[in-house]
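fwd from M.: "can u put these together and see what the complex looks like"

so here's what she sent:
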Amino acid sequence: MRVYNFSAGPATMPLEVLERAQSELTDWRGSGMSVTEMSHRSPEFVSIAAEAEARMRSLLGVPDDYAVLFLQGGATGQFAAVPLNLAAVGATAAYVNTGAWSKKAIAEGRNHLDVRVVADEKDSGYATVPAPGSLEVPADAAYLHYTLNETIGGVEFPYVPDAGDVPLVTDASSTILSRPLDVSRFGVIYAGAQKNLGPAGLTVVVVRKDLLGRARPETPSVLHWQAMAEADSMLNTPPTLAWYLVGLVLEWVEQQGGLEAMAQRNRAKAELLYGAIDSSDFWSNPVDADARSWMNVPFLAPDPALDKPFLAAAAEAGLSGLGGHRSVGGMRASIYNAMPLEGVQALVDLMTDFEKQNG
Amino acid sequence: MRVYNFSAGPATMPLEVLERAQSELTDWRGSGMSVTEMSHRSPEFVSIAAEAEARMRSLLGVPDDYAVLFLQGGATGQFAAVPLNLAAVGATAAYVNTGAWSKKAIAEGRNHLDVRVVADEKDSGYATVPAPGSLEVPADAAYLHYTLNETIGGVEFPYVPDAGDVPLVTDASSTILSRPLDVSRFGVIYAGAQKNLGPAGLTVVVVRKDLLGRARPETPSVLHWQAMAEADSMLNTPPTLAWYLVGLVLEWVEQQGGLEAMAQRNRAKAELLYGAIDSSDFWSNPVDADARSWMNVPFLAPDPALDKPFLAAAAEAGLSGLGGHRSVGGMRASIYNAMPLEGVQALVDLMTDFEKQNG
């Protein structure tokens, strides 16, 4: 029996996608081999790769003057790739700090350039995002970096910051494909696949082509956007199985009605869960209402001693992956595209029952 | 119907492994989820990861004073990681050039340090390796790098070079697990998984622990061996599905009898194919007898105009992936661990028939 898996990433995938991959795993559409056995230069795999890119472009509305790359190394790899590809030695870049993942991006950025933190939500306990229009970005900054969604804190930008002429760069790992995004506002969007796109081990980078050509010569070629763009992301052997699975997920998103439909579903799921939390005197969520993540919902019981019994009851009920990040404790429900409303309803029912018994 | 797939990588995998993965793909052993959906911090995945590492250590005979890392980025990622982790700015490193992959490692090495090419097989047309004992390695070199097997040229070192006190580093992508290797002779062994280990998207790095601690501060954390070793290769989300599949392949290698058994099988396969080439006046292989790869066997017809008809006849016979690398043409059969002797026999039969009709 399949459980409802609320893990933050790697995360639940659509069962239809897994079943399709399963049916093709020893023989992809009469080719006599698995996708994972195919040469990445074979016509079969090249078509799989190109189809996934085309679907990504179409779903996300990527303009023609942007490259779409399929790389390895996760968002953490891009924490280094961003400064190496966009900024010369000694340059300055602006960063927004909204929590744990921002901090990691900032720490890695500091290895490569002068980081100016233009907003730090420390005083709010990282429970919100800077107000629209409040960022003062130095005109000579190589870029402005922010974390669109903080997976641990459960904080998500409800708006796209204005960086003026400075290229805007975002880690969209948890948000990508969960709702429409105006790509034309960005210089670079990057995302690890293991939330809304599929398996871990693939990283999507969407980069405006006029920003290619700025890379430092010492940029490792696997992180070198221009070199990868010129090689259709096949400068070296790409993670073919992951690429194929992402393609199947993109096809599934298309079948669901695209990003407008995903946004409606995700909004409904988030409203159901936050509504249950807010209508309770027992459960709480510390994030400002307008900065709450639609994807990662942390919630706390009135006493941390109740975490273990709740997680045990959840496991009993077939709800998995609800433990909060080890750095913060409590609970967290990640409700990505592939989590159905029924899963969130089952969680809310459990929370209501648990409150009755322990409230 | 499954074909015999002679691709150089991604490459054929044991059917038993694919079938096992297939049976577990929507529900791993009663967990209610796919391996690819599991949190990498879950007890289930941590056990999968640890078991794969233990099998790798046991099969390859990795001493306790070596770390075994499971990273992303392929061997090409390690072309940058090696200098960044082992050598300060301005340091010198020695490289052996035996062909296309050596050249790529050297080119990327030059971005980070002073590369001294201590042997270059250009004069032989990259058809052999330096004679044992012929390398003069500068005593102050940070390391000596060589490519254990040139996948394109079909050249494989039949011996481990002596680097004295200089750490020996090798790209073992095609050789790893195909026969025993004395790990204790090496400072670092790295290998992309997509030949003998499983799917593309995972890179194994075996590094002597006393070499950790030399990394440059600007080393991207996804390529930082010490940081990865300290985090059990989970500094960020690892490629979990690939890691799991590598674990299944390692289990299969164990069931086959380990590396001695693999070596016997691989030697028999190589002898069958090279024997057929050498006993023919039609087919040829340009590599010196004692430097011929057991894994990648390039072969040429007397006239390149025969390549297309041969490849068409091969496809007809259910033999796939036999085209030579686009940089050299001709044919190439990659006969990794998962290629059975029957596949090589089918190829030899086809070559014999083709020669009769066209010789």
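replying to her w this: Chain A has a mean pLDDT of 97.
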